[in-house]
Prior knowledge:
The structure is a single chain. The protein is built from 14 helices and 17 strands. It is α/β, with parallel strands linked by helices. It has a 5-stranded mixed sheet with strand order 2-6-15-16-17, with no helix packed on it. The protein has a 5-stranded parallel sheet with strand order 10-11-12-13-14. The chain is globular. It starts with a strand and ends with a strand.
Amino acid sequence: MTMTAITNARVFDGERVRDETTVLLDGPTIAAVGGEAPAGAEIVDARGGTLLPGLFDAHTHTSEQALAFALRFGVTTELEMQGALTKARRAHIERNDAVADVRSAGFGITPPGGHPSELFPKGKRPGGDGGPARDDSDDLVMPFATTPEEAIAFIPKLVESGSDYIKFMVDDGTVEGHPGLPCLDQATLNAGVAEAHRHGMLTVAHALTLDATRMAVEAGVDGLVHVFMDRPHTEEIIQLIAESGMFVVPCVVLNASMMGITGETHADDERVASRLDDSWLTTLRSSFGHYPQGRLDDVLATVKALHDAGVDLLVGSDASVPVPFLGGVAHGASVHHELQYLVRAGLSPADALRAATATAARRFSLDDRGRIAEGLRADLLLVDGDPTTDIGHTLDIRAVWRRGTRLAAN
């Protein structure tokens, strides 16, 4: 197998810009950082560009088609936060270097009729009759729980079905425009999280309000896959999150969509439009729009306060399926939009890039990726310019590699 030498690159390794300018790939693996290109190696001259680790989207609901769009944007790993691409269902994806890789929570624990049931058409809501719903593709049972005992009982089932981590829905529907939805209570959440930890599982929580966030902190959840948007932050909640050691996936792009802010300007960027089809562009140009009273400046201030307090932030989009009611976000494209939002919030471009690479890999224990280092997966993104000083350059995509295989030009 011919080695590939990427030369004359500015190398951001997931943490910092390196002095070395050559990265050597041997099949699916990074063979060396620095040194000379060996005789016979295929040379990729990266002059004028920056080589980055493949990006993460740490909050998606995905499909094989969506994973293909993600890879076009240099997103080499998606973390599914509600869906069926658990271990037993993704072997074909792990071998397919034309799509992003994926890890999955399976289905999140929620009460019957709780979020996200309200997003489904009448008659097709998971648990609409109060009973267990099933994924149409197989016999995966939706984990509905209203008591600590039920939450505890579902954890081993989720582990057995191949969930990579366990998600809990802490949502009464206030932000989605459906106030009064059934919601996990504190005792049920506490019991489920403790049982997941007993099984050695990472736990994450969907929490869009400050009160739900407080519940997740009290339960000992490892990470929040949203930042609250119902009110400005307080010093107390920031301190609680920081002292807990939690990570946060803000999904600012999703909060903006819920406030009625579309991705129209992002979709108008030719670097985005050229990589999406019409259905995804339509979705990106729309919005969810169920919480117009929200204030984006408050969300950005919360993100900055979390960062200043030393909380690990991860880049996520909450991209789902290409329909307007889940609008404003698109696979791959919205990772770059989220990077721009993080910088707008006050993070440096390098801080934002860490949130999409090394920090995401570390917090989800994916130690084989997220950095440019000898022996790791050759998941790489080459862009023109220097995104460590101007985050907009992440969209100036020159080449993408997944496991050392260069993605064919679109």
